[in-house]
Specification:
68% of the residues lie in helices and 6% in strands. With 245 residues, the chain is mainly α. Strand 3 and strand 4 form a beta hairpin.
Length: 245
């Protein structure tokens, strides 16, 4: 009973670990998209800041940044299994408000899964740490300011490149932490698989039979039965009277 109970626990740990790794993989892919968006915005910002662009060119850059900002909103509302991955523990509410074009989620809670005795792993990256890390609009505010400057006839003096680099550094830091947790989860899965094999072996040692011994005993009993039937047939010889009865 102890070994069977242990195997049930191990099976639950495996499901948790697999689900957690899927969640983290989806998160990493989403953060990779965010990185691509910021890199493209940085290229456009450098391109539009060289002083040789016409008003039409600047408006075109502003329009592309606007589209990239909308795409960023879609990324921040990424889901897995109907749950929003950047919403903290409030996984049923979209963290990004498309109508207001703002990241409205302020949930700062960890999502953790148990993948072993006394082994708990955080599987989420808090959306507020990525999309509103400064508490003043975060990435979306930076992109809105860049867009506004390109649409304006008198651009502001804000160093947008420095702002973008700050956001990218923050993103890189959280992706590195996520990668470390993914490595830990993969090691946990490997350990769980090994534990399942050893526990199954122990259970087999308690429950399984020695097939060679069982077959030998069966054959011996069959031989004894045949011998008994043969002896009985010789002792009790049927006569004609027995058949007439």
């Amino acid at each position: 009973m102890f070994y069977r109970s242990s195997l049930n626990e191990i099976d639950q740990y495996k499901r948790n670990a697999d689900d957690g790794l899927s969640w983290m993989t989806t998160t990493d892919e989403a953060l990779d998209e965010v990185t691509s968006v910021l890199q493209r915005v940085r290229e456009l910002t450098l391109q539009g800041s060289n002083g040789t662009n016409s008003e039409t060119d600047r408006n075109a850059i502003a329009e592309e940044i606007s589209q990239l900002k909308e795409h960023l909103g879609e990324i921040s509302n990424s889901q897995i299994g109907g749950k929003y991955i950047f919403a903290g523990t409030d996984v049923k509410t979209p963290p990004y408000d498309a109508s207001a074009k703002q990241f409205t989620n302020a949930n700062n809670e960890k999502l953790e899964l148990v993948v072993g005795q006394n082994n708990t792993v955080q599987i989420n990256v808090k959306g507020i740490d990525i999309f509103n890390n400064d508490g003043a609009g975060g990435i979306f505010k930076v992109l809105s300011d860049i867009e506004s400057d390109f649409r304006s006839a008198t651009p502001g003096s804000t160093d947008h490149i420095a702002q973008l680099d700050g956001q990218m550094d923050n993103l890189l830091r959280h992706r590195s932490e996520l990668g470390a947790r993914m490595n830990r989860m993969e090691l946990s899965i490997s350990r769980i698989d090994g534990l399942e094999v050893s526990t199954t072996r122990l259970l087999s040692g308690e429950e399984d039979v020695d097939m060679a011994e069982v077959i030998t005993n069966l054959k011996t009993q069959e031989n004894v039965q045949r011998a008994a039937l043969s002896v009985g047939a010789r002792i009790i010889q049927p006569s004609l009277v027995d058949f007439l009865r």
